[in-house]
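Q: I'm a student working through a structural biology exercise. My instructor gave each of us a protein and asked us to get a predicted structure, then write a short paragraph describing it. Mine is Beta-1,6-galactofuranosyltransferase. I'm not confident about reading structure output yet, so if you can add a plain explanation after the tokens, that would really help. Here is the sequence I was given:
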Amino acid sequence: MSNLVITSIEPGKNTGGIKAKTDIIDFLKKEGYSSYTVNPYVSKLKKLILAGWKIPRDLSNQEFNKVIIQYPIPSERVLKKIIKVIRKKSKKTKIVFLIHDIQGLQSKSNDVIEHELKLFNLVDELIVHNEFMCKWLKSQGFKKKMINLEIFDYDNPQQIGENLDYVGSVCFAGNLFKSEFLKKLTLRHKVSVYGPNMFSNAPKSVEYMGQYSPEELPKHLKQNFGLIWDGPSLETCKGMFGEYMRYNNPHKTSLYISSGTPIIIWEKAALAKFVVENDVGITINNLNQLDDILDSVTPERYIEMKKNTILMAQKLRSGYFLRKAVESI
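A: Happy to help. First, here is the predicted structure for Beta-1,6-galactofuranosyltransferase. I'll explain a few features afterward.
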């Protein structure tokens, strides 16, 4: 029996979210998985055809040992049909959700959480971002096996940046419409910003560097640190996007590390523990402290973090963490 990874991809998009999904497909293909993609971003009629005819036709002609579904698939009808067809063919097939986002964690709505848990209980296991997401799901009553991914791998086609010179420079990459803290960021050091939806009237310390594809962007990340922060405040990460950092693995963390760039991350973020334990960056409580923290890093200390980051970059580029997770299914 073969193994399969199922993914929904929105045609015409080339974003970090799509990059995370396509990287997983590519890494799993190296592990012998075949790939099946669906496009739920279609009319109601085409969605009916997809769920009622195409998916049964495509998936019911063979048995699978393991099926990894990249969650969420933005059509519950399509998702449930996929699971039903696979279960009907063989009850021995292990079906696993590899979690990208949990809507209930973002919305904090009890109704959304309860509904999503019912979807999670349709499968055998979950691959979750980190131990904090695992603990949250257990606190909500989820009892099935969960596998800790630790961090997303990143298939980075650019050379790893090996410049060890320390000048206290920082970069930030992301969709800038939700990074409202940047509008208030007044520092002595420059923060080089990359991504779409750049706002006008940026502070002098925020320097916009343009927008690039996920594959090209690493070539431009020459700064000493990559910043992981979200929400409207400089004092802490709050709001829907900021609070979500307590549980999720921002994909930009993998972008930075796979490029050889050490991390500066909110100390209460889920990934802060990974950064500290692997010595690939530093944590920060308040962005108003950023100047002092950058000034306190010695060239010798930076070289130590940089070398650790380069070693971790090689792991992320090889699909190390995903491979370890799927072996645990």
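A: Here are two points you could use in your paragraph. The chain is about 40% helix and 20% strand. The chain has a mean pLDDT of 95. It's a good idea to check both against the output above yourself.
Q: Great, thank you!
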